[in-house]
């Protein structure tokens, strides 16, 4: 679970007593298992935590997608901040991760080309597996969604995606586009740390709703990552 988006917070936060209650629950379930001489109650509790963590991560993806979809309404009411900036302030999630969340829900679960039954089955996949499908769904690739829904591991899903998109989807050969706060665009291939300038967007003009909508569309559909 360590690689899943819901665990990748970029800024620490203070825990309150209610947050810490989970550790008391763990102590109690361990004690119960010891009394019973059976580890399975503790394992069932762990499975429940894992399921809840996974579905909450996906729910967070939907929440951010819906906020982004209606952000112009908040702006018309006087909200000056971009969604990425306010999410970072209030939730401690970086702009890059926020855009991943938004794109994940939009590309997969708001995609009219994917059947509702398939979407329901995809909700049971790990966030890491869903991220493998994001680009294929966005670009309309001819992927076997029934096979994807029936896949039992992230490795199977990766193989299905590569069968359609080829090896260029691997992290070492993929090209990533970045956008900094001044509007400059950069490209990077794989894990190579070198970034190359490729253009500029006039993000200073995003107070205009038309400009903001156009730039956000380019960012979302192009898989551009905010720095």
What does this structure look like?
The chain has two domains: 110 residues, no CATH class; 52 residues, no CATH class. 57% of the residues lie in helices and 8% in strands. The chain is built from ten helices and four strands; from the N terminus they run αααααααααβββαβ. Strands 3-2-1-4 form a four-stranded mixed beta sheet. A hairpin with a 6-residue loop joins β2 and β3. α1 packs antiparallel against α2, α2 crosses α5 and α4 packs across α5.
Quick gist of this model?
The protein has 227 residues and is an alpha+beta fold. It contains 10 helices and 4 strands; from the N terminus they run H-H-H-H-H-H-H-H-H-E-E-E-H-E.
Separate helix tally: 10
* Sequence of secondary-structure elements: HHHHHHHHHEEEHE
Computed over alpha carbons, the radius of gyration is: 20 Å
Strand order of the largest sheet: 3-2-1-4
What is the topology?
Elements: H1 17-36, H2 40-69, H3 71-76, H4 83-91, H5 95-109, H6 116-122, H7 127-138, H8 145-150, H9 154-165, E1 175-179, E2 184-189, E3 196-200, H10 209-221, E4 225-226
Parallel strand pairs: 1-4
Antiparallel strand pairs: 1-2, 2-3
Helix pairs in contact: 1-2, 2-5, 4-5, 5-7, 7-9
